């Protein structure tokens, strides 16, 4: 099979056996999507699968040897898995870095409000999204609340078929003349993204009745919202798309399509000479901030702990290790959409169904904020993919002056690692529901596995 092929899709290049393997992989990926609906749930599912495969908390170890499987749980929202190689960790690692947070709506600290007898939740959107896309959808509420006495309460409303859902209104077209005259970015404002919560009450005000329902079901007082993380996401599970079932629709493909490929790869890759590391980070969609984002110290701290368990405690060893390491920044790229062809430069755009996408640079207008991978490392990655028959393509994030974006690549490059963006190309990125091709999702898994197993 030709690994790099701009004329024939992955489906056309695959054998019947490979097509069956792709379908089986896609089923497992959809199960992951429907379970790992938030970054906290993704964290828990990754750890569950890792422990079933023999991974243990790093804190359980007093020394490390080849073949040991360890993990680091960063505050229930980020995860690192590692398989120790035959070479010392200080000789460098093979790292695949993905993220498990997704664009969504977050409840504000005082979210419950009433207007003319209707109770709403006030929200603040998380990540770069198009606000008008979030109206008129069934929505779920998922997250955690900590009460005044410190109890943790897990909340999930809208995921079970018998649950009620939430809904954000839009203006009817009969009255929408003024709204239609506005720019798309202004037709729905952030403060208008208020899900409907309730209308029934025997009292003059509805809000107290709604708060009483929350208290009865969950034991939550209004003040408890101040110590809560509650997310609004589409109450729609993954579905196959197209008469040929070649695509998957879901919330959160960005970046769970790469995260699941990363997880499946490290669970199935043969242990190698280099230590294999799968990173699943939080907060990428808002700049990798906070102590669960990659800008924080938790990943270098993890590597320092590995080194200490192999007898190296000086900071110099950490710096050497990072310089010796190679990274695939596993994040999605935009696939050419013929309906919006003017936004893309077709020759250099990735295409749906043509394999994992190598993106030399991201950034915006002049590569600002980009890692801009070096040719030497790109050459090595090409050789790895070609040798393993991994379907791959080249892509970039739209026309030069159109826009752009960023990943964790530049942050990991700051540590001294060789890094290139390598992710699944997709349609409708950052929409409530996104589209990927099954063949591209499977190619991502093959790419990350081949990279882990390379020397």
From TrEMBL:
One Pfam family, short name: Peptidase_M18
Keyword NADP: no
Enzyme class: hydrolase
GO molecular function ontology, one term from the record: aminopeptidase activity
UniProt cofactor(s): Zn(2+)
Family statement drawn from the similarity comment of this UniProt entry: Belongs to the peptidase M18 family.
Record-given protein name: M18 family aminopeptidase
Organism: Megasphaera hexanoica
Organismal lineage: Bacteria, Bacillati, Bacillota, Negativicutes, Veillonellales
């Amino acid at each position: 099979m030709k690994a790099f092929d701009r004329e024939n899709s992955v489906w056309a290049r695959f054998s019947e056996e490979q097509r069956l393997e792709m379908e089986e992989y896609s089923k497992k990926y959809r199960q992951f999507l429907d379970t790992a609906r938030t970054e906290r749930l993704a964290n828990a599912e990754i750890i569950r699968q890792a422990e079933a495969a023999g991974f243990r908390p790093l804190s359980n170890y007093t020394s490390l040897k080849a073949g040991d499987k360890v993990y680091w749980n960063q505050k229930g929202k980020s995860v690192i898995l590692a398989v120790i190689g035959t070479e010392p960790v200080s000789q460098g690692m093979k790292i695949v870095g993905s993220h498990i947070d997704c664009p969504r709506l977050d409840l504000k600290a005082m979210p419950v409000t009433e207007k003319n007898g209707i109770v709403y939740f006030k929200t603040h959107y998380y990540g770069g999204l198009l606000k008008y896309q979030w109206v008129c959808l069934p929505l779920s509420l998922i997250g955690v609340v900590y009460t005044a006495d410190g109890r943790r309460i897990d909340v999930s409303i809208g995921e079970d078929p018998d649950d009620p859902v939430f809904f954000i209104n839009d203006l009817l077209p009969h009255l929408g003349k003024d709204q239609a005259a506005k720019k798309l970015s202004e037709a729905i404002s952030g403060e208008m993204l208020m899900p409907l919560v309730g209308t029934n009450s025997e009292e003059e005000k509805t809000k107290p009745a709604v708060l009483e329902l929350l208290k009865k079901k969950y034991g939550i007082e209004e003040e408890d919202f101040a110590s809560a993380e509650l997310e609004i996401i589409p109450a729609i599970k993954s579905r196959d798309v197209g008469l040929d079932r070649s695509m998957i629709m879901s919330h959160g493909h960005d970046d769970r399509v790469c995260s699941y490929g990363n997880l499946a790869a490290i669970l199935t890759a043969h242990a190698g000479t280099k230590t294999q590391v799968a990173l699943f980070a939080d907060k990428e969609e808002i700049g990798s901030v906070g102590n669960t984002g990659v800008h924080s110290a938790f990943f270098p701290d993890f590597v320092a702990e590995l080194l200490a368990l192999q007898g190296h405690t000086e900071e110099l060893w950490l710096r050497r290790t990072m310089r010796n390491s190679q990274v695939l920044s596993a994040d999605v790229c935009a696939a050419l959409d013929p309906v919006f062809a003017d936004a893309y430069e077709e020759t250099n755009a990735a295409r749906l169904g043509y394999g994992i996408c190598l993106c030399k640079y991201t950034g915006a207008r002049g590569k600002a904020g980009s890692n801009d991978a070096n040719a030497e490392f790109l050459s090595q990655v090409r050789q790895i993919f070609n040798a393993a028959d991994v379907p791959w393509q080249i892509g970039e994030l739209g026309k030069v002056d159109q826009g752009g974006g960023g990943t964790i690549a530049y942050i990991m490059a700051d540590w001294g690692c060789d890094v290139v963006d390598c992710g699944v190309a997709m349609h409708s990125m950052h929409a409530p529901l996104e589209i990927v091709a099954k063949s591209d999702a499977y190619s991502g898994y093959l790419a990350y596995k081949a990279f882990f197993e390379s020397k």
